[in-house]
Structure formats: structure tokens, C-alpha cells
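Predict the 3D structure for this chain.
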Amino acid sequence: MAGRKVEAGRAEDLAERTHAAVLEAVEITARAGPPPPGPRGGRRWLPRYFVRRVTWHVLDHAWEIGDRQR
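Done. Predicted structure below.
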């Protein structure tokens, strides 16, 4: 992805700001291609990989919550 960070602000707005930052990064990457590696090296995630990782992460949390309720 574009390596964006969510700007500091009120905790109540964190989800909205994160959503906006993700959409902006995906749009920029789709139009301009992936950015160069960051200062610490390593590759940035492409949008498809980012979506797959985030989806897996959310499912993993849902499974953990489901396991705790049993």
C-alpha cells in the first residue's frame, strides 16, 4: 500500500479516519502503481494482498470471539 499513517485526532473518529486513509491509499496505488520501498526496506503491500490480509485478520478475531463464547 502507500504506507500512509492515520492522522492523530479524537479516538471517536479513528475508524472513520482509518477508512478514509485506506481508501485514499488504495486509490493512489491503483492509479500510480505501488510506491518505492520505505526507508526501512521491504515491499509495500499491493491492494489485493492488503484486502486479503485484513479480511483474514478480521475473520481470525471473529473466530477467537466465537471460541470464547463456547
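The CA atoms of residues 7 and 55 lie 23 Å apart.
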